[in-house]
């Protein structure tokens, strides 16, 4: 193992990324190093390999000027995901996944336009008047799901923070054959694990690891964007001597 890999492993160790559950699922066994005090220990060398594969995919998407969608439903990680999305100029969902968000795009585009109109209307309302959201509390919840969406286009990839809490997003992406990068803990179901194209075996309850992961993806995006060809300058049409 190279020195750089050892350094990354040490960082992963410091985040408790290796801590699994007492009873890991059968398909997850291949990612285990062993057991300690009846707790599953995740093999961080395999985690590192999976992280590299995920970063390679992100790099290829960004170099091709594509985009990905960040999916998170854990309130503890909301701020980390939101900051990452803004730094990388990518879309994100920090709330409960809306069924049909990917598989029923035509309807979702119309819904999103309605929310944008509501938002624009509420900005110009007098503070004493009621907002449309006051009459439809459910709309306010749904509006939060759209606030981080920057494009109507289908994403080239989903980046999911917690697989177990986002099974519907994984099912829809799989149905459309959209690549899925997802953190997955040792208690993930075998059925769900089979649908994840770029799994990252890790303790997904570690906020330190989630921060490290988001920082890694952010750096990958920024470096990939720096490789974009510079726009050609127009030829000077000034008069000669």
From TrEMBL:
Belongs to the universal ribosomal protein uS2 family. It comes from the Eukaryota. Keywords: Mitochondrion, Ribonucleoprotein, Ribosomal protein. Pfam families: Ribosomal_S2. It comes from Trichostomum tenuirostre (Narrow-fruited crisp moss). One of its GO terms (cellular component) is mitochondrial small ribosomal subunit. HAMAP family: Ribosomal_uS2_B (MF_00291_B). GO terms for molecular function: structural constituent of ribosome. The gene is rps2. GO terms for biological process: translation. This is Ribosomal protein S2.
């Amino acid at each position: 193992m190279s020195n750089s890999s050892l350094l990354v492993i040490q960082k992963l160790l410091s985040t408790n990324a290796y801590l699994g559950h007492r009873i890991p699922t059968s398909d997850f066994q291949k990612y285990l190093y062993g057991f300690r005090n009846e707790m599953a220990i995740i093999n961080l060398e395999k985690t590192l390999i999976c992280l590299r594969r995920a970063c390679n995919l992100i790099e290829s998407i960004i170099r091709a000027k594509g985009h990905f969608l960040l999916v998170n439903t854990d309130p503890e990680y909301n701020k980390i995901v939101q900051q990452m999305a803004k730094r990388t100029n990518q879309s994100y969902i920090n709330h409960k996944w809306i069924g049909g968000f990917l598989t029923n795009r035509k309807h979702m585009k119309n819904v999103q336009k309605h929310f944008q109109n509501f938002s624009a209307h509420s900005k110009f309302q007098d503070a004493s008047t009621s907002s449309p959201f006051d009459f439809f509390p459910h709309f306010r919840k749904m509006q939060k799901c759209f606030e981080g969406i920057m494009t109507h286009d289908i994403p080239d990839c989903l980046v999911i923070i917690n697989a177990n809490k986002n099974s519907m997003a994984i099912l829809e992406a799989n149905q459309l054959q959209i690549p899925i990068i997802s953190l997955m803990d040792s208690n993930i179901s075998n059925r769900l694990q089979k649908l994840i194209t770029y799994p990252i075996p890790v303790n997904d309850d570690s906020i330190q690891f989630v921060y490290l992961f988001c920082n890694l993806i952010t750096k990958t995006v920024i470096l990939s964007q720096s490789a974009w060809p510079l726009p050609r300058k127009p030829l000077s049409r000034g008069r000669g001597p």
